[in-house]
Amino acid sequence: MKSLKAYEISFFGLKEGIHHFKYEIGNQFFEDFNYDEFLDTNVLVSLEFIKKSTMLELHFTSKGFVNVACDVSNERYDQSISGELNIVVKFGDEFNDDNEEVLIIPHGEHQINVAQFIYEMIVLSVPNKKIHPGIEDGSLHSDIIEKLKELQPNKKKKSNEIDPRWEDLKKLLTDKNT
Fold this sequence. Notes:
Blueprint: E1 8-10, E2 17-25, H1 27-32, E3 41-51, E4 55-69, E5 76-92, E6 102-106, E7 111-113, H2 115-125, H3 133-137, H4 143-151, H5 164-177
Parallel strand pairs: 5-6
Antiparallel strand pairs: 1-7, 2-3, 3-4, 4-5
């Protein structure tokens, strides 16, 4: 976790106004969080840090790629991602992060670590269902794809043919009415 010290911003000495920070996120960042879903990572994060007299505003944007496994074929590919996150930091009696958009830190604090916010923004930018682009355009050829096609059910059933299980269920209804 020593490498996450690079994500600490000491706002005590900053003048009021807008400040810009840039972070290049690679594999080591996610290793520090013990997150191993990504084989390779290259994400650029920009932070617009606005210091006001009573609060701080943090506007994060990210753009880049993460190397993930396809949910269908398990083939690795680069998934492009982009994301935004806005956080308002207020000062209060005690630390409170119950609200996703408002963080309350104690009055005596003089720095904030933004690593957790960056981590969450990037992880949540990855789609829930990860599909290799080669599957979508039909250019990916792998043993898994061939086996899935082979095991796919045959849909050449006659439209007027009724499943015998439904016929048995209909008999139950007609037996009840008599």
